[in-house]
Amino acid sequence: MGLSHSPFTYKGMTSGTLKALSKITAVAVQGDQANLRQILGTFVYGYTIDTYMCHIWYTYLLPPLETALINLTVGQNAPALLKVALTTAFSSTVFDLPYVWVYYATSGYLTGLYKTWEEAKKEANKGYYQAWYDGLKVWPGFTFLCMYFLPRDLVVPAGNLIGYFWNTYFMLLQAANSKKQ
Question: For residue 124, what are the contacts with CB-CB under 8 A and spacing of at least 6?
Fold first, then answer.
């Protein structure tokens, strides 16, 4: 009931909390303690930007684009496995590539990793492609399984669970790239 009536609240709390836990874990792996700005910045990113981008994509944008893509390629009578594979490949490029850039720049800025928005954009331009490429080893398979087996409104919350591990890796990559400067 709550998820269908207040999707941004529930998905936002889940995403924000898991991303904040990822930040705490990533900083601990580096042998340090996360400060309040890192924790709150990561939570705010997860609660707002991440939740809205993912919810809008999977709920409103992907369904009509998916229908058009299927109609233009394999047709609606194609096996579900093929349709989900095509949709996953489409989403992995059309959504994931810009999403990773936004994640890289915005989360880095909100957590204080980058001092200015200009620096955040510059660093995102340098590092997001590698992060997206690394994500191809994880997300398409997971997205495929979620889209094949779960109702669409549970794809984002399920993604948040595996996202804890991905976000921890991503934050370690982001911090390592920042230290190379």
Answer: 101, 104, 105, 108
